[in-house]
Please model this.
Amino acid sequence: MSLLEVKQLTKNFGGLSAVSMVNMELGDNELVGLIGPNGAGKTTLFNLLTGVYEPTEGVIDLEVDGEKTSLIKQKTYNITAMGLGRTFQNIRLFKDLTVLENVLIGMHEKNKVGTIASIFRTPQYYAAEESMRKEALELLKLFNLETKVEELAKNLPYGEQRRLEIVRALATKPKILFLDEPAAGMNPQETANLTSLIRQVHKDFKLTILLIEHDMSLVMDVCERIYVLEYGRMIAHGSPEEIKNNEAVIKAYLGGE
Amino acid sequence: MKQFNKKNLGWLIFIAAIYILIQLGTSLGIINAFYEITLMTILINVILATGLNLIIGFSGQFSLGHAGFMAIGAYCTGIVSIKYPTVLGLIGGILLGIIIASLVALLVGIPTLRLKGDYLAIATLGVAEIIRIVILNMNDLTNGAAGLSGIPFIANWQITFAFIVISLIVIMNYIKSSPGRATISIREDEIAAESMGINTTKYKIIAFVLGAASAAIAGGLHASYFSVIRPSDFTFMKSVDILIIVVFGGLGSMTGSVVAAIVLGILNIYLQPFGQLRMIIYSVALVAIMVFKPSGLLGTKEFTISGLLDRKNKKSSVKEGEAE
Amino acid sequence: MLTVKDLSVYYGVIQATKEINFEVNEGEIVSLIGANGAGKSTVLKAISGLHRPKSGEILFKDRPIHKDTTRKIVQLGISQVPEGRHVFKGMTVIENLEMGAFLRKDKNEIQKDLKMVFDRFPILEERKKQDTATLSGGEQQMVAMGRALMSRPKLLLLDEPSMGLAPIFIKEIFNIIKMINTQGTTVLLIEQNAKVALEIANRGYVLETGKVVQTGTGKELLASDEVQKAYLGG
Amino acid sequence: STTGSGSDTDKIKIGSMFEKTGEVSAYGTAEANAVNLAVKEINENGGILDKEIDLIEYDTKSDNTEAASVATKLATQDEVAVIVGPATTGAVKASTPAVTRAGVSLVTPSGTDDSLTLDENGNVQPNIFRTSFQDSFQGIALAEFATNELDAEKAVIIGDSSSDYALGLTKAFKGAFEGEIVAEENFTADDTDFNAILTRIKDLDFEFIYLPGYYNQAGLIIKQAREMGITQPILGADGFGNQALLELAGVDNVDNVYYSAHYSPNSDDSQVTDFIAAYKEEYDVEPDMFAALAYDTVYLVAQAIEESGEASTDSITKALEDIAEFDGVTGTFSFDEDHNPVKSTLVIELQDGVEVGNTEVTP
Amino acid sequence: MEAFLQQLINGLSLGSIYALIALGYTMVYGIIKLINFAHGDIYMVGAFVGYTAINSLHLSFFPALILSMVFCAVLGVAIERIAYKPLRNATRVAALITAIGMSYLLQNGMIYLVGSETRAFPQVIKNKIYEFMGLQVSQTQILIFATTIILMLALQLIVQKTKMGKAMRAVSTDADAARLMGINVDNVISFTFALGSSLAGAAGVLVGLYYNSIEPMMGYAPGLKAFIAAVLGGIGIIPGAMFGGFTIGIIETLVSGYGGSLIKDAVVYLILIVILIFKPSGLLGKNVKEKV
Ligand SMILES: Nc1ncnc2c1ncn2[C@@H]1O[C@H](COP(=O)(O)OP(=O)(O)OP(=O)(O)O)[C@@H](O)[C@H]1O
Ligand SMILES: Nc1ncnc2c1ncn2[C@@H]1O[C@H](COP(=O)(O)OP(=O)(O)OP(=O)(O)O)[C@@H](O)[C@H]1O
Ligand SMILES: [Mg+2]
Ligand SMILES: [Mg+2]
Model:
């Protein structure tokens, strides 16, 4: 079975059907793109998968410890614990906390330090803090953020904020990482740097990545497969080459040359 | 590890020094009965404000009902210690207060902490008023509107000081730990916090319960020291008074709350001779302070011993994130 | 038409622009390009009077405007499409467009311009009674553009109009910018998408950490090695 | 501390602490004003023991913690000889530990709760005195009045559940009243709209309304009841004693209203008329029952100091206990062993807003 | 049944007072998201201005009402300029504290000026009582009820249809973008305060007339209830303030009317909390989940 299976997924807002009857599958260690016009329902799909919105109908199954587990009606934090990590279209860092704290918060659930242990400062508490700190610093180093650990997140330049968001998502130890327009607001040079970073994460962490992006240079470059949404429906699916030449996609999204 | 101990030692010395200073003051008669009342008011306000700050400043939940939990603590302590007028009776009463306040906080927290902003504020205000009205109507136990009087005076400043140290250590240790960071992340961005796998409801409730428990302690000490309590001591205006201390000190700064409680306590002494004009001066001061320093005295910063002792090492000490 | 002289803007202690100089002539499209945080948006905020410069001058038709209120500046004919659209959510498309004509009293002309905007963005006419909060990003961008046009600006300031838009919309937006320009509106354009921006621009300026480091015609800049390396990814 | 105002021998320090701001500032301010007036008069007439009174005043903010704080300040820091105030029971109780420890006596003009002057074991609090009736006294007197004078057997009680004053009066009344209590309704001090409870009792079979409460709510209740067509007699306590009762209720509505009082404002006793004139002159409003009690309290304290011959705290306490036949605006009285005044009450009858008679009741 | 209907009338009349005050509350909240705690005290000032106008200036009712509204409008704008404007970019709690400070200032300033005793409001309009089918309703009750409805409709019209109203809505969603339209944001906010405060002034005079009782602390309790009403209705929503006010008034009255006068407020709060649990953004609030 594939890692994540989505069937007939639908989300209505009042009369508007933001996502309708969407089917999708993600396998192990894949790098998949999700594109579509503005308002097609891409972000909404992410929100459904991560439990931020509750689907109107449909099936979302994730493989957890070899078993098929439904994500419907699960709380976001449970879903995260099961291995789905994400970034946000509009950056949502913990702005007034330091870079390090942002990452440590991502690690919190996986390094259960009990409230009681923390209040009474048991030896376990010290040990856990030590190891979390070490791990966080290593992660930050990997993303060239090691010199910024004590900076407040809000004071980082935009590009570094995007990177920190990815680090923070990785700190939750996800099996699947959802990236929502990581290159938005970046110039082509910055986008190129980001492209190689995504490749590296994909390789080093051996995880599956689902990527929303309007920058075709990035999508076509890194994605193995691409899904295309329009008006909430999946209108196409295939390799970058197939998508580039798909009439419907060109008409709805890419535009003719 | 060495770093931690050094810092803990610093705080220990600091606390001991303050204790000795107060002790010296009372022995030499510098702190007379009147200053002692002021001191007690300040100490009790410190507990109240730090507890509320945990809820509002750290978990980011807007509670306007702190006085309700204080009332629970005050009445439990009053009732128990009238029956058993001993130190054990006092501690038993306070413990009972903590337990009941925590249970009530848990019970109301689970449904209401889903609410946001002003809606939560109104709900918590309502909870506090319900607590007060229940107390008002439990005549046999609470003596209704007339309240309890003749509560034995047991909570001297030494006992109060001990309670303050304990509750501050608990709260500080909590916020400077992984669960504490999880709590703060809710204030920063609830949706992002959930996406980090944090059970936001759980940590909101922990903060709410801890805050309620500390309010119960403060209420118990208040009852025991002042020996009279009435339901009308714990109205919405009391919650507002505590809120003022918290905001004045800086939302998200525990040491700020401590400093603000002290400053406002001392301000009150100086304003007392002004009679009716006092409240006018106080309100003008309140507006002026907020206009000129909207983030409060300390903002979200904490005053630290290490920062005071050697400013050079400040960076590394913050890094350790230990009980500052 | 617009002259910016030695402009320095601060946010608290952070200096966002450092004695910037540039100008925009009547009828031109001028592009400002530069990395994130270079100070591009800050320049536009200073021109519109949203953020006061600490020193320097901004002249519009030889008249200093850096001490004027935003209201005055809008009255003089400068209109801005801010970064991130900033449509009025909770108001309908048509109400948003009417807000653009807030300072105008000529009811008939306003109706004409409304029609003009709908001609340019037909989709908006279909959505005219819809709450802008529920529009897609591209549609919101059109509302923001249409709203700015409703004030009949002489100078239109555009801050990253293509951000977050699907490729097909990007093309459309740039076509519209060209069209507006040929119909007589001067345009100052900020874009991350430097290639397209420089293609349609008469002239361009490159900003780096608050300073102008390079200038030239659009074609010159496109051909420049530095620009190629820093902004065009190769 | 036996020499209260030891250091400054040509002045006698008296403390005044009242609720001048906050919830119950209406009563506190009236009392504080009357205290000032009395002190001014005494000083103009040569003071006490040929010494001028130095009045040290504080506001308790209607807050008990603050009351404890200023009582301590007066007793230990300012070292006053005696304290007048505060107005409410709670504030007096909060001040009790401090003044008792310092041995400074405190006379409250209007703290009415029975337990005020007693400790938990029923022993008298050595330093607490009051000039007003205690709740049980009035409650019983009114119950008797209802039975004997109104010939009424069916009562409806409308009480202020947020005030200990009203609760005390209700409790005493219920204990003493032999007739039937048809209904008992409650309101809180914040309320201004009483239509709900009045509608509820309107069609019940009852002969009078017992309304323990202060004039500011009582006035509104009388108005709303009469407008609604409830015509039965309304019986209240000394909290009615303010001109505002008539104005709030509307003069026409104040019909069949009875209340127990310390004195009749229409009395032609010169002490009463002089006091009313002086107060009006000074503050431009009619004095109320609270003002009268506070005014008397100062003269009472002055008499005690005069009689003790010195301004030491202990001798003043002793003199207060022994005071014989103090003659003031609110009657002639001395203290019983529980520090409560021994005096009778007048039940005043109002018809069409005019006092038409009064009956002396001594339960 | 008759008793129930009578209580309903009582509840509506009490509720319309809460609603009247809540309208101004919600209006100000709607635009700058500030809980203007001093609103209840402006209402109190309004009552005193009306009192003075009638007693000392010997004006008749309507001129006194207008004078009070104008005075309160000016007062509201002054408070906004002095105490709230500097805090536009501060946290909302900081602004709330300032508002509480202003509330204290108005209360205690008034106590200082006129004393804290309760006064009777001059009864310039004779209160007639109408009876039909055994139900009673007074002229002032009708007056207040009608005023509330009319003002609610008028406000709704102003906010939805007029240019100023649109400017207000624009400022409330995005102040900087509103500036770019040439809107003078400060003036719009001042206008909102003027409008909201003049409503409070009108309420002060009307309620003063109705209950015949005014004092410096009179704004506290109804101010708090009105705030609760505004939140219950969905804060920032004009018809919501009205429905919230009616709801609270009716619940309060029915609870008292059916023997619960001791626990009236507790029941009100309990119902309030239950309503909020099921409708977390108030009666008329749209339950929009934040778009992420
Ligand atoms: N909470 C919501 N309430 C109402 N409508 C919503 C909500 N969230 C999304 N929508 C609507 O659903 C549709 C899909 O929105 P979504 O954000 O998923 O688009 P998208 O594909 O991510 O577009 P973009 O590329 O512009 O980010 C849009 O029309 C949007 O207005
Ligand atoms: N409100 C603000 N407060 C403090 N600093 C700010 C503020 N706005 C911008 N800055 C800082 O000013 C500098 C210039 O920002 P500006 O927004 O003008 O950059 P930009 O070139 O428009 O970048 P982008 O491509 O991300 O839009 C940056 O360092 C930024 O962090
Ligand atoms: Mg999206
Ligand atoms: Mg920018």
Q: What stands out?
A: DSSP finds eleven helices and two strands in chain E. The beta strands of chain E are 129-132, 135-138. The pocket of magnesium ion (ligand 4) is lined by residues C 40-41, 83, 159 (CB under 6 Å).
